[in-house]
Design goal:
single chain, alpha/beta, TIM Barrel, two-stranded antiparallel ribbon, 12 helices, globular
């Protein structure tokens, strides 16, 4: 039956039920030339085990997005949080799709996908110094109008308590430095909330990324108007011992401390591994890999679920669990189906965070006659990949 076209389109997803919003961070840099800072799929040619199970793919293709949605929702991932980049030269000007870096993941793929109704999405504003920051005027005049009309008002945007959720990545303090005082930043964020109310919402949740464990520093975010904080990933580079057991214990310790200190201001993240070797060639990352393999990843998920269930019923953290990460192929943290791990990370998510009331479909595109998803990268020779992996000639 291999490579025989059995249906006119991708089989309809059979979503699994869950009591949680399980949101995977999503890095849409896999359209050829979109990444700019690194070489995307070319970076992993020497790491064939990282090859996506569907091969290299044109991420802007809505049909590729439909496969990802199907795999995600059948295993409990019911939301993608897209990294959202605005070019620096666009700051202070009306936002357009052309002014975005990697905007194709939303505007070309997800918004044209047939299965978009099955999954929620949100954006994480990447305010890194190489990308555009903002200030109070720019927030209200440019960013909020674009976000509201293009994202927040869409039927599948992540809304909690009738409030859109806006995630912010400001590790370089680019946004923070734009305001003279914490009170000034809070005032600007409150103006964003008022804008959302005028657009028909009850407000706006604004969340900030921070993967440190300094409780006193984390308290300062609330003075600046953030509603809660989260981690994009948990970095274990602090520790010489990066065994699976140590990494599981440290993730739990850090998150337990934060959940106890901020019962209404924190949500959990389950990190599986971190291994940026392919990216080191093109970016200045410290090579400090650690792995929690799929069977042990179940313990991380159980810990996150336990912490979430202990949070107040009306808190965001009770509803939301994050997954690190869907598709950071070269930076080295992903749960999307790969040649190294297959569906094992997704199976762990389904079995630990859902009601397991569906039947996932594990047929790959090539199994049922679908192709044409790689018109730009050059399809990797999967037989050569297998030979290299198993040392065959």
């Amino acid at each position: 039956m291999y490579n025989i076209r059995l249906t006119d389109y991708i089989p309809e997803p059979d979503p699994v039920s869950s009591d949680f919003i399980v949101a995977a961070h999503y890095y849409s840099a896999w359209k050829k030339g979109a990444a700019e800072l690194h070489n995307a799929f070319y970076d992993i040619k020497e790491y064939p085990e990282r090859t996506p199970l569907m091969g290299y793919y044109d991420e802007e293709n809505p049909e590729v997005c439909d496969w990802e949605i199907k795999w995600a929702v059948e295993h409990g991932v019911n939301c993608f949080i897209h990294c959202w980049y605005r070019r620096k030269e666009n700051m202070g000007k009306p936002v357009t799709v052309d002014a975005l870096r990697c905007g194709h993941g939303l505007h070309e793929a997800l918004f044209n996908a047939r299965f978009g109704k099955y999954i929620k999405f949100a954006i994480m504003y990447e305010a890194q110094t190489r990308w555009g920051g903002t200030d109070e005027k720019d927030l209200i005049d440019n960013l909020m109008p674009f976000w509201t009309e293009n994202y927040f008002k869409r039927d599948n945007y992540l809304i909690i308590n009738n409030c859109p959720v806006l995630f912010v990545y400001d590790t370089k303090k680019q946004i923070e430095k734009a305001f003279e005082t914490p009170e000034a930043q809070k005032k600007a964020f409150d103006a964003c909330r008022n804008y959302a109310v005028k657009a028909g919402f009850s407000g706006l949740y604004i969340a900030v990324q921070d993967n440190t464990s300094n409780i006193e520093e984390l308290k300062k975010y609330y003075e600046r108007g953030y509603d809660f904080h989260f981690a994009y990933n948990w970095w274990m580079g602090y520790f010489e011992d990066r065994t699976s057991e140590k990494c599981i214990a440290e993730q739990y310790r850090i998150q337990k401390e934060r959940a106890e200190a901020f019962p209404y201001g924190f949500n959990t993240t389950a990190s599986a591994f971190w291994d940026p070797k392919p990216r080191v060639k093109t970016m200045s990352y410290i090579d400090d890999p650690w792995y929690i393999y799929p069977n042990d990843f179940r313990k991380v998920l159980r810990n996150c679920r336990q912490l979430a269930e202990q949070m107040p019923e009306d808190s965001v953290g009770r509803k939301l669990i994050m997954i690190d990460n869907w598709n950071e192929w070269d930076e080295g943290h992903f749960v999307s189906p790969s040649h190294e791990f297959g569906f094992k990370y997704l199976e762990a998510i389904r079995e630990e965070l859902t009601k397991r009331d569906n039947l996932p479909d594990y047929r790959m595109p090539q199994d049922i006659g679908f192709s044409g998803y790689n018109k730009s990268w050059g399809e990797p020779d999967l037989s050569e990949i297998c030979r290299k992996k198993f040392g065959l000639k």
